[in-house]
Write a structure and sequence with these properties.
It is a single chain. The protein is of the alpha+beta class and 192 residues long. The protein has two domains: 1-43; 46-184, lipopolysaccharide transport protein A fold. It has two helices and twelve strands. The mean pLDDT is 81.
Length: 192
Amino acid sequence: MRSKKKIVLLALLAGVVVLAGLLVRGYLKYREFRENPAKLIEAIPEGTNIVLGEVRHTAVREGRKEWVLEAASAQYSESSKEAVFNEVKVTFFMDNGDRIHLQGRKGTINTASNDMLVAGNVRIERDDQTLLTDQIEYDHETRHLTSPSEVRITGRNFDLRADAMRVDLAAETAFFTGAVEGTIDAANQLRL
């Protein structure tokens, strides 16, 4: 009878030790992922799809922050190297310290290139200027924003419409194509 109690007690003690070890290992992994969330993505087996809530992604080039994306949720596909976001907000950081704020209902990022597409009630704001369009594409390599659909830009003392547009964020220049019309006060400087 005593030997059965000893066996049960030893089995129970071994179970407690194993459980404690698993808890310690789990806590250490939790701390590692909390301190460096990118390791969580690296730990996901290849070909896996994941869904995340409240996402924040920062793009840095040569030690300089270029843009920050925030979204209500995201779905990531390892096989297509693509992340799809809902309720997207992107802040672009300009060389002169200014910021451009972009938002839209849906967004897609190619995780290999950092190129993105934002669609659905797209709104871009800088200072007192607002741009509205249906879709905007961002080429990370060239830092170009392109809208293949109609754009409307409004600000203090101007209103401009065009069939399409391309903005070079590095040079801070905009090119409008198709039917371009609008009103611009001669004293006003259009910045984009």
